[in-house]
Structures are given as structure tokens and as C-alpha cells.
Amino acid sequence: MGCQKCTSTPTLPRGIKNIVMLAAHEYMLQKYYDTFKTRYSIMYEDEYLSFKADFEDFIKQTSLEKDFTQVELENITILPLEIDEKLSFSIYKRSKTLSYYINLYNAVDLKWILDNNSIITLFQPIIDCSTMDVVAYECLSRGLKQDGSIMSPVIMFESARKSDMLFTLDRACRLQSLKNAKLKNIEKNIFINFTPTSIYNPVFCLHDTVEYAKELKFDFNNIVFEVIETERVENIAHLKNIFNFYIEKGFRVALDDVGSGYSTLNVLAELKPHIVKIDIALIRGIDRDPTKKAIVNSLVYIAKEIGATVLAEGIETTEEFEMVKSLGVNLVQGYLFGKPSADV
Length: 344
Description:
Blueprint lengths: L3 H4 L8 E8 L2 H11 L6 E2 L4 E6 H10 L5 H5 L1 E6 L14 E2 H9 L1 H8 L3 E10 L5 E11 L5 E2 L1 H10 L3 H18 L5 E6 L7 H4 L1 H9 L7 E5 L8 H14 L2 E7 L3 H10 L3 E4 L1 H4 L6 H16 L3 E5 L4 H9 L4 E3 L11
Parallel strand pairs: 7-9, 9-10, 10-11, 11-12, 12-13, 13-14
Antiparallel strand pairs: 1-3, 1-4, 2-3, 4-5, 6-7, 6-14, 7-8
Helix pairs in contact: 3-5, 7-8, 8-10
């Protein structure tokens, strides 16, 4: 079960197309006409431009032109037609912005990674403050490009957002994390990241994630689904719906980057997650900063009031560890205890 948006990647139209270009304002059409009239035989109609061109070359040349602003690219709409295809009202729904096609053209590495299931998982240990034992691992995804180099998660997810592949990437990372954790025979808790905007209906979008966890014979209580970019969450009701789905299935849930903004406190109060991960910015140098100490102390109190376990990430020094431990933090994670690694 899964929709095409989650299980396949978009493809840039290939070959010679009859390109129809519309814009939010006529000056944008005039600007494009003036810039490319010597390269393409452009017909300037009253409300649109039309011309024949190899579509990939057209996108490439447009992407190289630095005179167009991002706002303009987002407000120019492209409709690629086959040479013998007639323009009709129903066809307009296939139109997309010029910005989208440029981003898709530039996302060639991400598309290759997804099409070839070339995602690797690194594991970073999570430590219990009271026993100093490893009690969990966070699964961190990286893209392995065709040339063997690594694409960072920041670049992967930014590229995915721009090229409409976020649904596909988030799903692929979830499934690959489960697969690789099982291959490593990890019996401790595993933390798997997800972005709420990649899930429009949890019953539908997360069905294969649940089924794959069953197939791999995971104890669902050992899997913690962690929402990333908590500070960007705008639709709390949607995230609550996702959390409820995970919890009903027997998983646990965590909030990341708590304390990075006022909005995260609202999310914390509304969702009451099992685990609260304190923003790394509050941990860095906390032993030397009374303000950070006071904020983390308050967050620990609030988290424990709602029954949540507190995890401090980004610990790099013994002094930082001793400070968060004294404040009542339950779990820690960071380079002091172990860097992300393919080995467990």
C-alpha cells in the first residue's frame, strides 16, 4: 500500500516539447522573451509565450540565467506539450512553476539516490545518565551518490522539498532505518526521524512503515519516532494526529529541538510526547551559561510534569554532561559518547 507520490520520483520531461509559458504579470513574459528570443523561436501571444525546444536544454539554460529572481521563477508557469498535442483547459492542471522544474533538474543526485535505494544509516548511541549504559541508537540517514560521495541529510531534505520528493525521501529513510537496524541486530531502542509535512494521512502514509516493522519482527515499544524541526510545526492538530497513530500502534514518540522557540513549548504542552530532546543550542556551553542552565532546568521540570523522559543531545564535554545530569536529564547523546557510525 502506498501512493505514487511516496513510492516513485518525478521525472523531467524529455525531448522536444511545445512549451507554453504563462506568468503572474506580463513583464515577466516580456523579460523572458527579451532574454531568450535569439535562442528560441518564441511566439509572444497576448497572455503567454510558446516555442519549441528540447525541454531539458530549456530548463538548463534558464537555470543558468542569473537575471531572474526567485520570486519571478516561482510566478512563471510552464506547460510542456507534445508537438501534436492541442492546448485545452483540462491540460492546464499539468502546469508547474519554472522554479519547480529548475529544482527538479538540479535534484539529479537525490533522484538517483531514491531510484536506486541508495540510503545508508548511521547509528549514534544514546546513554542513560544513571547507569552510563547505551540504551538506544538514533538512526541517521545519509545519501550515497552515484560517484560514491555522501549527501548530507540537510542537503537531501532541502533538495527534496524544492523538487516535490519529500514524501518519497522521508518514507525511504524510515524504511531503510528499520532495515539497517535489523541487519545490525540492534535490540535496544531505536530513534527514527520523520517530518510531519511528509505525511498527509498517517493511516495511509504510514501503513507500509507499520507493516515493515511487523515483517522484521520489531518490538514496537522499542521504536521511537522522532519529529524533526519541531520549531517549524505550524499545524499542531496534524502532528497530534500522527502521534496518536504511532501511539495506538504501540510505538513511542519524541519531540526534537525543544526549547528552540516559544512555539515548541506550545507543541510540548499539546502533544505530551514520551521523550523530549532539548535543543542542542541550549546544551552547548551550558556549564558556563547561567541563562541556559535556568532554561534547561525549567524544561526538565515541565517535561517531567507531563511524564516525559528528557534527552540532552549534542554533549561534547564532560562539563556539559555533568551539568545536564545535575539538572535531572535522563538521557544524553553527543560526540562525548560516540559519533554517528555504521558500526554498532
